[in-house]
Amino acid sequence: MADDYYNTDDHTRVARDGLWTFTRDLFIAMGMNKEDAGIEADVLIWANVRGVDSHGVQLLSMYIDNVEQGTMNCRPDVEVVQESAATMLVEADRSFGPPVTVFTMNRLMEKAKQTGIGWGLIRNLTHQGAMAYYTELAARRDMAGIAFVCNPPNMAPTGARKAGVHNSPLAIGVPTGDGSMLYDIATSVAAGGKIRVAQDKRISIPEEWALDENGDPTTDPDLAKYVRPFGGYKGYGMALMFETLSSLMMGRPLLSPWTHEHEDRPSMYSQNSVVAAIDIATFTDPEQYKKDVDDTIAGIKGLPRQDEAKEIMVPGDPEKATEKDRLTNGIPLPVGTVEKIFAAAEQFSLDLPPELA
Q1: 279 alpha carbon, distance to own chain's centre
Q2: Where are the alpha helices (DSSP H) in 50-93?
Q3: Rounded to 5°, angle at Cα 67 from 62 and 70
Q4: Which 8-state DSSP code applies to residue 156?
Q5: Contact by Cβ (8 Å): 23, 40
Q6: Cβ atoms of residues 157 and 188 within 8 Å
Q7: Where are the alpha helices (DSSP H) in the chain?
Q8: Alpha carbon of residue 272 to chain centroid
Q9: Which of 177, 98, 107, 104 has the alpha carbon at shortest distance from 139?
Q10: How far apart are CA 150 and CA 169, in angstroms?
């Protein structure tokens, strides 16, 4: 969902194209090739345009820090370790998430055209940005896309005071008559990036979002240590099962090294991921499928509404509305995010977007 909770007046509007160019140039200055840098910029700005600011350019300072520390690799040696007609396992060599995930999804869509499905595991990559971006790639080609990710633990299981699972995001995308319907959630009440956005906006967070280092609920984003699962055991259980389908399936556990104090702990920014593409034409006519999706959406939106409800929405509706506004009026960047952009521009001697120059 778009970060409507963060609507405040203390922001600067920046045009999409100028912010994309700055972001692309920053990744090039950090050491990426031009193609990978463009993919990185695409994924981050796509999130900002859709109002998912938790996965947009507010991440730039974190990325810079991780490159300097050697956690994120701008020039990875990506390798397809094993492959079948419908599956593939990719070693990412600490790659930034977007380039290797786009590569993998493109290969999986080719497989899906031949076999009906492409199922891929990616190991040892780093932050992937908004997961719905990759499922939309599939939806554009009349396929259904699925993606989820696991990291070392940052979420406290129900009843625990410390992290034991990751708030593993899940995205599903399907085509519609005029585009796609995209579902993208974290298994926590709120994504960790939303807490960072709250820091940038200098505002508090709801008590149900996070625990402090003592395992107590907090409304101070600076004290938030562990995120909390949505729906109690529902979000926690989903996150745990994602680990079994990704990290454990590829022989690279991420939760147990942390919960059992292993000496060979992976970095907190190291992750494993699953992406998949399903060719709708294997099962039914794609055009009829899209019509049926549209009819389903129309039926849901036409249901009787509760008195306080202005409309009944389906996944992606808030983001589509935000996209129209931001493409016309610019992307609102809070003061903390602007400060990060200034710092990055100075560090790498880059021209700022015109609105910030």
Answers
A1: 23
A2: 60-68
A3: 125
A4: P
A5: yes
A6: no
A7: 16-30, 34-49, 60-68, 97-115, 132-139, 192-201, 233-245, 256-259, 286-301, 317-329, 335-348
A8: 13
A9: 177
A10: 8
User: At 82, phi and psi to the nearest 5?
Assistant: -150, 155
The C-alpha angle 23, 28, 31, rounded to 5 degrees, equals 130
- Per-position pLDDT tens, the chain of length 357: 445 444 555 789 999 999 999 999 999 999 999 999 999 999 999 999 999 998 999 999 999 999 999 999 999 999 999 999 999 999 999 999 999 999 999 999 999 999 999 999 999 999 999 999 999 999 999 999 999 999 999 999 999 999 999 999 999 999 999 999 999 999 999 988 889 888 888 899 999 999 999 999 999 999 999 999 999 999 999 999 999 999 999 999 999 888 877 767 778 889 999 999 999 999 999 999 999 999 999 999 999 999 999 999 999 999 999 999 999 999 999 999 999 999 999 999 999 999 998
How far is Cα 66 from Cα 74, in angstroms, rounded to an integer? 10
Helix 34-49 to helix 16-30 angle, to the nearest 10 degrees? 140
Residue 229 DSSP class: B
What backbone torsions phi and psi does residue 122 show, to the nearest 5 degrees?
Answer: -120, 125
Could you say which DSSP state residue 280 is in? G
**Distance in angstroms (rounded) separating the CA atoms of residues 92 and 79:** 7
Sheet containing 170-176: order of strands: 79-83, 87-91, 117-125, 271-279, 143-150, 170-176, 179-185
What do you get for the CA distance between the two ends of the chain, in Å? 31
Q: What single-letter amino acid sits at 310?
A: K
Tokens of 279: 């060719």
Answering whether pTM is above 0.85, one says yes
User: Can you list the positions of beta strands (E) in 151-270?
Assistant: 170-176, 179-185, 210-211, 217-218, 226-227
Q: Other CB atoms closer than 10 Å to residue 288's CB: what's the count?
A: 10
